[in-house]
Amino acid sequence: MRRRAWLIGAFVAFLGSVFGQGFGCQGEIGVPPGASPQTGGPAEPGSGGGFPSNTGGFPNVAGGNPGTSTGGSPSTGSAGSGTSGAGGSPSSGTSGGSATCASGLTQCGTDCANLGTDSLHCGLCTNACGAGQACQAGVCQCETGFTKCGAACTNLTSDAANCGMCGKACAAGQVCSNSACATSCGTGLTKCGLSCSNTMTDPLNCGTCLTVCPAGTSCSAGRCTCPGTQTVCNNQCVDTSTSATNCGACGTACPAGRSCVGGSCGCAAGQMLCGTTCTNTQTDAANCGTCGTACAVGGTCAAGKCNNPVVNCTTDNTVFNGHITFYSLVTSGTNIDVACHFPTNMLPANYGAMNTADYNAAAVCGACVEITNSQNGSKLTIPIVDECPAATNMQWCFNGSHHIDLSTSAYGALGANNNPAITWRYVPCTPTGAIQYFIDPGSNQFYLAVTILNTRYRVAKVEVMNGGSFQAMTRQTYNAWVLSSGAGSGPFTFRVTDIYNHVLQDTAVPFTANKPLNGAAQFAACP
Known about the structure:
Layout: H1 2-19, E1 106-108, E2 111-113, E3 133-136, E4 139-142, E5 147-149, E6 152-154, E7 175-177, E8 180-182, E9 190-192, E10 195-197, E11 218-220, E12 223-225, E13 231-233, E14 236-238, E15 259-261, E16 264-266, E17 272-274, E18 277-279, E19 300-302, E20 305-307, E21 320-327, E22 352-355, H2 356-359, E23 368-373, E24 379-388, E25 404-407, H3 408-413, E26 421-427, E27 436-439, E28 448-453, E29 459-466, E30 469-472, E31 474-475, E32 481-483, E33 492-498, E34 503-509, E35 516-518
Parallel strand pairs: 21-25, 22-24
Antiparallel strand pairs: 1-2, 3-4, 5-6, 7-8, 9-10, 11-12, 13-14, 15-16, 17-18, 19-20, 21-26, 22-25, 23-24, 23-26, 27-28, 27-35, 28-32, 29-30, 29-33, 31-32, 33-34
């Protein structure tokens, strides 16, 4: 099919040079709708172009869309040059900040710990002292009544392997009673294995044999107790004055973002309670300076003051001189086969394909232009959704031509005939509703491609929240914005900036591919 199309295209180009008839950018001849066709056979669909289906990555993309001839001799569209795409959650609102502990305490998970004395977090959050040990000055030391023998703390009064002194083992059949090897335990002692234990005070046999007290506790009156003011909560010693999971009492947990200070859930020094979350109002863009004072989308907060993006609405009044031709898309269902990667079932009747130079690697996609026909002065505003590739359409779409290839409807709406000269300029689009996101079907958690639809102005930047911060996506020549490493399985938070520095942010955008997904707002209009 591709070879046949090329031969027919070459033949039609030859006829054009003989008869002086101009051909459109993408396989059409410049006969206006309703005019008498040239003599010739039936129109032949163009070859190539479009976005073939692709699994696991982005499709190879041909620049421009193939066209069909409108009347006259058959002609074929030629696929322009294209590029290959790379293979391949959070919400906005009140910023919580981090829960900071009071002076002298360290955040260990959800708890604030004194690393100098806390046997569960001794010296380090991850260092828990063992049985018979207590935390002293950040180091696990043997408790009173225990002696360090090798790497372990042992009770020399009852340990048959270290009876009376380290390394002195009792003979077979003997027990250690009151630091001496004997055949039976002394008064008030209980035989636990080869040890003679006081189950009222022994943390290794507290109350009964083999009842070992948790790290940081001691045995008193046959019960495991915590040192100082600590309390046993879920078989652990905790300080209920600082524990965010046991604040004031066992099981009383502080809300996310709040810490436990003096047995009450509150905010640490330098933070303020905004709603139910502790935050630093000096740096929180959602609560900048005071609770509820939010900076503009894309803005930052420093020293309690917002630094918002500066909108620069400098209108481009440049008037371009060029020509127009027309073409017809070859579409099938929802196939995406325009260079700007817009779903063809969403295209209006009137649209255009920009020459390669002004297409500017997809930067013009979604722009609206006002065209004035030099033949009759009629005007028409259309969106740019496609490319007229110079490589295969040098007659019209050469560099500097400022040529626009129109849909047949747009060409007819201008009352155009014989590819007339035109002037055109950029104007704001008039979209209905909010911007939209179109996630490519080849996307997955390791590769994300999205096209922005329905915008008032051209898009200059797209970012996606990834790992807690916004990451810039890269625009491809087929107008998809790609993060080749992916951003997870969604939902996504996107931040979109237009050419005038208006910024929109949408949260909770679902990972739903191959359909338009509505955002929350539209770019503000420039005055």
